[in-house]
Amino acid sequence: MQNYYLLLCILFIFGTAHAQKYSKAKTSYCIVKGTITTTSSYCGGARPSEEMIEELQKPKPANRKTIYIKYGSKNSSSTKVIKKIVTNELGQFEVKLKKGFVYQFMDDWKSKPFEVPKNTEFVIWDIACFKKRYATPDFVLDLKKNKTGFVEVNYHQPCFYNPYCGNYSGPLPP
Length: 174
Description:
The protein is an alpha+beta fold. It has helices at residues 2-25, 50-57, 108-111, 127-135; strands at 29-40, 60-61, 66-71, 81-86, 92-98, 102-106, 123-125, 139-142, 149-157, 166-168.
């Protein structure tokens, strides 16, 4: 009878230890919330009032904007997209991510393999600048250090005659 109780105690101890080990092995997740906004520059036409220029510079919700998530803190063509999210009408989103990782959030063109833009009659591209811009995520979230996360990104739309990493030499708007 004592052997029976001893066997039950051993099974209980090992069962408890196994259950604790299993519960620690379970991946924990974090709900990450974020807001994506846009601003733009005055690009020509009739001279706007100061209020109109200020309005262009105020962040506005990016309605139905698609954002991509990859692991790591530096973008490259070899890093795969792990999630694709779309903002609501207020430019907000919510996504479930595993804790203990670093994530990068980016616009559509950075989620694809790097492609050197072609020079045109009016635009000469600075390839080194473009590569650096591609490699830099729009937002980095470290869920190794942080227990929660909030993502805020503003996408600024420059004028066609002032492109990022480009030198424009064509006609300007009136």
